């Protein structure tokens, strides 16, 4: 029971452990779609937009641009443009395979010279098409032959080619060997377009072999042509496949976006064409389909198409553009194949021996209880909604208050019925679950403890105020649910854990240099200042601590739990009161006044600054006596001129000593014993901002400010006495909190053990 009891006692820190891992998959199987009312296939060839055949009944063309205008010959099932046959169109690669005529020059004793030269055609002369240099080769076949590949575009003209002569030497001509005799091949330079092939002979086959009276040259897709001796007499192909890269438009992505002519649709990205002409579109990772089609790309359902790495389909939860793996109720783990899910090692082994009868009774009781609950549920929901101030909220009008009211069922579904595995934190006044809403948004859902009915109006007003706050450094409140006995608050999900974690976790600490610390301190101070002064009613946080400062993926600070702690839980005991300010951060004045004000937040923020500077926990029970209270320890350090020794290893360097001292001065001011003497949050924020600006412009200042200066700022003699006084009174309190501290110690030990 003791263990369970402890769980409900304040956990001084919010443990953020991401148990569900988001995995992105890059394996996209694109489906190809034509415009509505347009031909999707010609024979076996699919015709994805921007390519198209003809018009819709409306008279709009089925293709995007003239270059993609194709014709389908139904009787021969061939998709053509002029004399070019299109045999495959690949949207995701931006490529198309086409059959192109082979150039041929023959000598005939009777009929004389005959020649077929492959000329540019309407389709491939368009600048939208470039020969893929990577996927094709240029080949000439013959024994007295030269072949050219000419590219003519924008008035510039260039060619490549190869020649082959046999001089009657048949020994060197081998099947499958296109190395210069009888057959030669060259790579194709990049960005070749509007190409034509040209073939000729040096001596009109005079010195050539009797069996060779033709020369051929052509471009062909890699591995789609194998030379054979027989081809010298007669090449059995009229056309061969060539791979073209295509692009749409005639401007870059940026230009086309500026002009509003970009045709990349939903969930796609735009890539500039390597050919320098136009761009192409590609579905974002996790999406598939046709990025040119008005419907855009669609989400891949990884879970139902076995494209996930979760333990099983059951554990897989599809999201927009990705998926997450969840473990079944009562199990923990990341749900991914290598790691999987394991039974939570929660119950001691003694319980395993428990008799089946006991379990049966338990199950029976539960069933009875559930039936009873169900009957009462609907009535209860209404009652709770009213009790929790739902009517006040409705009066305000959902729209004007920006507060979204969630139903209990929705949130139950989002959290997999409050699955223990989805718990990402436990605070003094509730538990925080990670949840996935129906629209795939990931949110944090806070289940509060029981609220005093007398405070309902205040609660609702504060919910309304909080949901109107839109500050970069405050975790956004998205809405609430009032149908449950305890109100549920829905917040945006912040992914990167807590500041506490970053300061005190050895693995993460390295990433956490002084610059980042100063930035986060400044952001936090800005947020607190904003809420103290800028909001329509001043909001006091009451529980400022590093564990309530969350970091998002860019390590931007987001202050959480703002103002929510105003709602004093019903079971208000000495313990619950403690919750209001976490031990170590709590304003000492509160001991006398039992009031938490804006200045209490300033004090707590001072502790956070001290924490950032020293890297020490504000409530350490392991260290020697004097270190148990970080604020006390920090002040004494400053007083005894040992600040630099007290700094966390690694944050001090050549350039930042001055800044550190400045911040220490601010912390000292914040930690003054009387609230009145502390600066306001606005002043703190401005000073920190100033230090950051100075650090950006290098320190122009000359001599070091020394520590005597800080000591001046320490409480003067009279307040020193008060300090002593406060000291003894807190000593008195210590005995009272003794047992709590022990509990905390156990709980605090949890994260390092995990
Ligand atoms: C015809 O045009 C109307 C509106 O202009 C559009 O809603 C409809 O989808 C079009 N039909 C086809 C087959 O393109
Ligand atoms: C598309 O091609 C067909 C056949 O070559 C031609 O008749 C038609 O005019 C072309 N359409 C446009 C808009 O160029
Ligand atoms: C369609 O293909 C058939 C068979 O190859 C051919 O005879 C006919 O001329 C083609 N029609 C057109 C319009 O090209
Ligand atoms: C397009 O290319 C990709 C990658 O090479 C391939 O997976 C896909 O099957 C191709 N699609 C078509 C229609 O050829
Ligand atoms: C065949 O072509 C060659 C050069 O291309 C030319 O010299 C010769 O006169 C031509 N012969 C005939 C019969 O046209
Ligand atoms: C393609 O090349 C031919 C000559 O080979 C030229 O007449 C034509 O203008 C070129 N087309 C483009 C679009 O550059
Ligand atoms: C065409 O050539 C001119 C000058 O040679 C150049 O300024 C222009 O950028 C070129 N256009 C394209 C699309 O390459
Ligand atoms: C391109 O260059 C070749 C070789 O110099 C020449 O024969 C051909 O006429 C040129 N083509 C054009 C369109 O200028
Ligand atoms: C053609 O496309 C392929 C595959 O997307 C790419 O690797 C290649 O660089 C492209 N070549 C040109 C000349 O754009
Ligand atoms: C090549 O010459 C042989 C006889 O020497 C003749 O039978 C054959 O038709 C010729 N081939 C071509 C394509 O002219
Ligand atoms: C090209 O090569 C592929 C595979 O090597 C083969 O499946 C295809 O039939 C070939 N196409 C032609 C036109 O030879
Ligand atoms: C680029 O495309 C637009 C619209 O398709 C067209 O009006 C313009 O003439 C084109 N510009 C060039 C240089 O091809």
The hetero molecules present are: 2-acetamido-2-deoxy-beta-D-glucopyranose
CATH architecture of the domain at 499-569 and 588-748: Orthogonal Bundle
CATH homolog superfamily of the domain at 499-569 and 588-748: Transferase(Phosphotransferase) domain 1
Q: What share of the residues lie within helices?
A: 25-40%
In CATH's first tier, which class of the domain at 499-569 and 588-748 applies?
Mainly Alpha
State the secondary-structure class: alpha+beta
- Count of individual beta strands: 34
Work out the helix count: 19
Major beta sheet summary = 7 strands, mixed
The spatial strand order of the largest sheet comes to: 4-5-6-7-8-18-11
Rg: 37 Å
Report how far apart the termini are.
22 Å
Mean pLDDT: 76
The general outline is elongated
Give me the CATH fold name of the domain at 499-569 and 588-748: Transferase(Phosphotransferase), domain 1
Describe this structure in words.
Among the domains are: about 95-245, Jelly Rolls; about 390-490, Phosphorylase Kinase, domain 1 (2-Layer Sandwich); about 500-570 and about 590-750, Transferase(Phosphotransferase), domain 1, CATH 1.10.510. Helix content is about 30%, strand content about 20%. The protein is built from 19 helices and 34 strands. The strands form ten sheets. The protein has a seven-stranded mixed sheet, with no helix packed on it. The longest helix has about 35 residues, at about 715-754. The radius of gyration is 37 Å and the shape is elongated. The two termini are about 20 Å apart. Mean pLDDT is about 75; it is low at about 1-30, about 345-355, about 565-580 and about 700-754. It binds 2-acetamido-2-deoxy-beta-D-glucopyranose (NAG) (12 copies). One 2-acetamido-2-deoxy-beta-D-glucopyranose (NAG) binds near residues 73, 75 and 76.
């Amino acid at each position: 029971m003791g263990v369970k009891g402890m769980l409900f006692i304040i956990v001084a820190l919010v443990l953020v452990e991401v148990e569900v891992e988001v995995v992105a998959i890059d394996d996209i199987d694109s489906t190809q779609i034509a415009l509505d009312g347009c031909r999707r296939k010609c024979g076996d060839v699919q015709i994805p937009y921007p390519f198209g055949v003809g018009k819709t009944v409306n008279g709009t063309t089925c293709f995007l641009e003239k270059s993609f205008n194709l014709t389908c010959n139904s009787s021969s099932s061939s998709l053509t443009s002029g004399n070019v046959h299109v045999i495959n169109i690949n949207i995701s690669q931006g490529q198309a395979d086409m059959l192109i005529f082979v150039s041929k020059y023959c000598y005939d004793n009777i009929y004389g010279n005959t020649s077929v030269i492959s000329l540019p055609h309407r389709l491939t002369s368009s600048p939208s098409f470039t020969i893929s240099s990577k996927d094709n080769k240029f080949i000439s076949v013959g024994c007295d032959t030269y072949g050219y590949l000419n590219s003519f575009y924008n008035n510039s003209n260039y060619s490549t080619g190869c020649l082959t002569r046999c001089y009657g030497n048949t020994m060197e001509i081998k099947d499958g060997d296109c190395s210069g005799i009888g057959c030669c091949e060259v790579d194709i330079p990049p960005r070749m377009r509007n190409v034509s092939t040209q073939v000729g002979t040096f001596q009109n086959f005079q010195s050539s072999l009797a069996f060779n009276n033709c020369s051929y040259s052509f471009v062909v897709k890699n591995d789609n042509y194998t030379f054979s001796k027989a081809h010298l007499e007669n090449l059995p192909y009229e056309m061969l496949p060539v791979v073209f890269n295509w692009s749409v438009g005639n401007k870059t992505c940026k230009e086309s976006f500026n002009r509003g002519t970009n045709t990349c649709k939903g969930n796609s990205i735009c890539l500039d064409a390597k050919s320098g002409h136009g761009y192409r579109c590609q579905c974002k990772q996790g999406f598939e389909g046709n990025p040119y089609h008005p419907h855009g790309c669609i989400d891949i359902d990884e879970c139902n198409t076995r494209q996930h790495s979760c333990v099983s389909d059951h554990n897989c939860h599809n999201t927009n553009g990705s998926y997450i793996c969840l473990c079944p109720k009562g199990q923990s783990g990341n749900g991914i194949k290598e790691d999987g899910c394991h039974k939570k090692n929660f119950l001691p082994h003694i319980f395993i021996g428990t008799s089946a009868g006991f379990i049966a009774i338990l199950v029976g009781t539960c069933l009875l209880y559930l039936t009873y609950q169900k009957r009462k549920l609907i009535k209860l929901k209404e009652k709770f909604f009213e009790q929790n101030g739902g009517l006040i909220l409705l009066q305000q009008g959902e729209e004007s208050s920006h507060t979204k009211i969630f139903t209990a069922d929705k949130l139950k579904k989002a959290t997999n019925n409050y699955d223990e595995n989805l718990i990402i934190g436990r605070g003094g006044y509730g538990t925080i679950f990670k949840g996935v809403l129906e629209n795939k948004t990931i949110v944090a859902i806070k289940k509060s403890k029981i609220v005093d009915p007398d405070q309902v109006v205040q609660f609702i007003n504060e919910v309304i105020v909080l949901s109107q706050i839109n500050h970069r450094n405050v975790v956004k409140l998205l809405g609430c649910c009032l149908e449950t006995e305890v109100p549920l608050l829905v917040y945006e999900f912040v992914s990167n854990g807590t500041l506490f974690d970053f300061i005190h976790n050895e693995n993460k600490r390295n990433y956490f240099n002084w610059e980042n610390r100063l930035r986060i301190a400044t952001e936090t101070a800005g947020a607190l200042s904003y809420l103290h002064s800028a909001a329509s009613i001043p909001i006091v946080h009451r529980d400022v601590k590093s564990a309530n400062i969350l970091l998002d993926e860019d390590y931007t600070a987001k202050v959480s739990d703002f103002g929510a702690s105003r709602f004093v839980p019903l079971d208000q005991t000495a313990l619950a009161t403690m919750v209001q300010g976490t031990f170590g951060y709590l304003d000492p004045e509160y001991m006398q006044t039992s009031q938490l004000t804006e200045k209490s937040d300033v004090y707590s923020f001072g502790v956070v600054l001290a924490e950032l500077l020293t890297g020490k926990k504000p409530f350490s029970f392991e260290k020697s006596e004097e270190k148990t209270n970080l604020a006390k320890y920090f002040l004494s350090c400053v007083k005894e001129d040992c600040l630099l020794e007290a700094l966390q290893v690694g944050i001090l360097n050549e350039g930042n000593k001055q800044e550190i001292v400045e911040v220490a001065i601010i912390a000292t001011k914040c930690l003054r014993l009387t609230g009145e003497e502390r600066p306001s949050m606005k002043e703190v924020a401005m000073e920190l901002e100033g230090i950051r600006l100075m650090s950006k412009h290098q320190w122009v200042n000359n001599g070091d400010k020394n520590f005597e200066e800080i000591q001046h700022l320490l409480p003067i003699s009279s307040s020193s006495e008060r300090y002593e006084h406060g000291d003894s009174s807190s000593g008195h309190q210590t005995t009272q909190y003794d047992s709590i501290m022990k509990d905390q110690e156990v709980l605090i030990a949890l994260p390092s053990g995990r």
